[in-house]
Amino acid sequence: MHLIDQLESTKNQTLLCFSLSSDELHKRYAADKWTIKQILVHLADAEAVLMERIKRIIAEPHQVLYAFQQDLWNVELAYDSFPLELSRDLYIASRNINMFLVSGYYTTHAHKEFIHSETGIRTLGMEMEKVALHNAHHLAQIEIALKNIT
């Protein structure tokens, strides 16, 4: 399955980033944007949030699922000082569960609908695909940050 390949690929690339040096982790892809470390903590939290959403959609379709305010999570949970090892562990566990759910439910349940509080009606398939797309988006930001000299 193509989606499983994307999930595996983005997982492997992301795990390499958790081993970056302290100097690299403090790089930003643009002024006033998150550091690589903040992106990694966000990826772990987002992976867990998406996992919980996917489970809810499978078990209880047609409900309203609320967006989370990522910038507030960054500030209020102090992403800049959050233990990166914990985020790495959360990312691995959540990604592995998401891959299990995609392999077991994508084909038969992708049509199940839910309502996202900001974007409206969505499907389980769309949410599963979002896991890989979201991760790839942030990997591109990390790549830019690593090329920045500052």
What does it look like?
The protein has a 3-stranded mixed β-sheet with strand order 1-2-3. By secondary structure, the protein is mainly α. Helix 1 (2-17) runs parallel beside helix 6 (124-147), helix 3 (36-59) packs parallel to helix 5 (84-109) and helix 5 runs antiparallel to helix 6. The chain is built from 6 helices and 3 strands; from the N terminus they run H-H-H-E-H-H-E-E-H.
Tags for this model:
150 residues; mainly alpha
Query: What radius of gyration results from the CA coordinates?
Result: 16 Å
Spatial gap, N to C terminus: 40 Å
User: How many β-strand runs?
Assistant: 3
Poorly predicted runs of 5 or more residues = none
Elements, N to C (H/E): HHHEHHEEH
Provide the spatial order of strands within the biggest beta sheet.
Answer: 1-2-3
The rough form would be described as globular
- Name the average pLDDT: 96
Note the beta-strand portion.
5-15%
Structural class assignment: mainly alpha
Number of helices: 6
Helix content: 55-70%
Short description:
The protein is mainly alpha-helical and 150 residues long. It is built from 6 helices and 3 strands, in the order H-H-H-E-H-H-E-E-H.
